[in-house]
Design goal:
38% strand; homodimer; 19% helix; 215 residues; ten-stranded antiparallel β-sheet; 11 strands; alpha+beta
Chain lengths: 215, 215
């Protein structure tokens, strides 16, 4: 489904990089849990990094019930940004240097997930999205923990993606200049998992650790 | 120098993770050009990803003079966030799962760099921070390009860092549970540089391409 851009989501600059379709937006949200949540508190802007996950046409994020961000963002307008930084673009002039990226901006009023069981189910969905099969191996969540967890959600009704990829775009006359130009592609790499120092001997990282990736 | 936290920068949650000293803050800003700039426009929050660089006690970012973000953020309160995502922290309960990160939040009123020569000098500083030695090999910036570039700056007077590293922190009784726990460390890796398809034969990536890194 493609949503028509609104005044907020319409990409103003370089609109050839703009996308408003789920086929572009959802994979970006699914590939990068790290996001920043922007909200207004006491009249000034705050940007807080946290992890998000998507379920259908919603994204969710959560944290401590004592969090300023979660308290302030509930029932108010937020802007959530998710960015995958894909590379450095090196041109023949300073002006045409750039970077490659995939980025999503989602606007709307955040809502709080209040129901205990819904909260638990969505946390399970988050965990299973990151690490399939892990949830059932864990110690169960307590009511106290669920109570101490605030979860916010946002319907994806006002969303845009902006994507840049490919080589530099130089001025025509600059292509003759004698210097290297191109792209340094960038990926997020997982290093070998590090056992918890208190790990019980004999436990090795399961498949969902080896398979974990971002991007 | 360490700044006393203000009402905005005081880390409310998990203040053992909070830092207010330049020795912690500056290396994070220097290690990650990607940032998000939060600002308020027409009463609602916007979060825009862009690249930042630090010079002394200021950070700067720039873009097209037609950018909504640069237009809206000038002379108003902004919040700039820089985050390095360092790993996934896998515990023995869902509640104690976390991630490792280094994050900086900077608050204040953004100012515009208006002077032509100052703008050019700071763009050179940005380029030289990323790619030492590159600036002088490039086609020079034109007055038209400098005019089309809006540059904003922020003094680092109200800044905090929040850092998490190390293994999971599980509840004491959970350490006996029979499952793997630990950390998946995460780094940003540069792949082999990709030549521009229109590269003049014989030019190979210079040292500043091979040495480029993030983190």
């Amino acid at each position: 489904m493609t949503q028509p851009p609104t005044e907020r989501t319409r990409v103003k600059r370089l609109n050839k990089r703009a996308h408003y379709d789920e086929a572009t937006i959802h994979p970006i949200l699914d590939a990068q849990p790290m996001c920043t949540v922007g909200y207004v508190f006491n009249g000034t802007p705050y940007v807080t990094p946290t992890l998000q996950w998507r379920e259908g046409n919603h994204i969710y994020w959560h944290g401590s019930a004592a969090s300023r961000m979660l308290e302030a963002a509930e029932d108010t307008e937020v802007c959530v940004n998710v960015t995958l930084f894909d590379g450095m673009v090196m041109a023949r002039s300073g002006f045409n240097h750039s970077c490659n990226y995939r980025s999503v901006m989602a606007f709307g009023k955040a809502f709080k997930v209040n129901d205990r069981d819904e909260k638990e189910m969505r946390l399970k969905n988050f965990m299973e999205h990151l690490y399939p099969g892990r949830w059932d191996t864990l110690r169960k969540m307590s009511d106290k923990e669920l109570k101490a967890t605030t979860m916010l959600g946002l319907e994806l009704n006002e969303v845009s993606a902006k994507v840049r990829n490919g080589p530099p775009g130089d001025d025509e006359e600059d292509y003759a200049l004698p210097l290297w130009a191109g792209v340094i592609p960038m990926v997020t790499t997982m290093l070998a998992p590090v056992d918890d120092p208190r790990l019980i001997k004999g436990h090795t990282p399961p498949a969902h650790v080896k398979n974990f990736k971002i991007g």
